[in-house]
């Protein structure tokens, strides 16, 4: 099972503008279309079972709608992480929402890797096995986050 931990996605109507902006302003050509549908297609063709995805809010006024949209896209194979903007005045509510989304993401990652270790059986905890390495990484993330 392949778990991809770093993806940025945008609503279908916004993604082309974001991709174009990245290419023009930063000289960076992103992989994929930056859309949920594009990400799901890539997951299918690449054999990726679960993706952790982040949407970026370009301004404080877009934080809540961005997070609402991102959470609406949540499914078993797509784990969202909320967005915060540094200039957001009433950030406490969004931080709480983003924290809940982050908690969901790490809990889901733990469930996925637990299943992977189970599938491999004793071999799943053998040093050098990808499941063992991912188990250690996900566990470290959960310890770092602290109590919920």
Itemize the secondary structure elements and their pairings.
Blueprint: E1 2-8, H1 15-26, H2 36-46, E2 48-54, H3 63-72, E3 78-81, H4 91-120, H5 130-145
Parallel strand pairs: 1-2, 2-3
Structure description:
The chain is of the alpha/beta class. The chain has a single domain (2-145), classed as Transcription Regulator spoIIAA, CATH 3.30.750. The protein contains five helices and three strands; from the N terminus they run E-H-H-E-H-E-H-H. The protein has helices spanning 15-26, 36-46, 63-72, 91-120, 130-145, and strands at residues 2-8, 48-54, 78-81. The chain has a three-stranded parallel sheet with strand order 1-2-3. Helix 3 links the parallel strand 2 and strand 3 (78-81). Helix 3 (63-72) packs parallel to helix 4 and helix 4 packs antiparallel against helix 5 (130-145). It is globular and about 50 Å long. The two termini are 28 Å apart. The mean pLDDT is 80.
């Amino acid at each position: 099972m392949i778990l991809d931990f770093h993806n940025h996605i945008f609503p279908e109507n916004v993604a082309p503008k974001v991709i174009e902006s990245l290419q023009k302003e930063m000289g960076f050509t992103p992989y994929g279309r930056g859309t949920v549908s594009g990400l799901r297609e890539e997951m299918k063709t690449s054999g990726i079972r679960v993706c952790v995805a982040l949407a970026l809010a370009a301004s404080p006024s877009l934080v809540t709608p961005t997070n609402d949209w991102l959470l609406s896209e949540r499914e078993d194979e797509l784990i969202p992480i909320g967005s915060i903007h540094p200039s957001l005045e009433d950030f406490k509510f969004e931080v709480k929402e983003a924290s809940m989304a982050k908690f969901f993401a790490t809990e889901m990652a733990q469930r996925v890797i637990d299943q992977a270790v189970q599938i491999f059986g004793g071999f799943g905890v053998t040093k050098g096995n990808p499941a063992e390495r991912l188990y250690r990484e996900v566990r470290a993330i959960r310890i770092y986050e602290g109590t919920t």
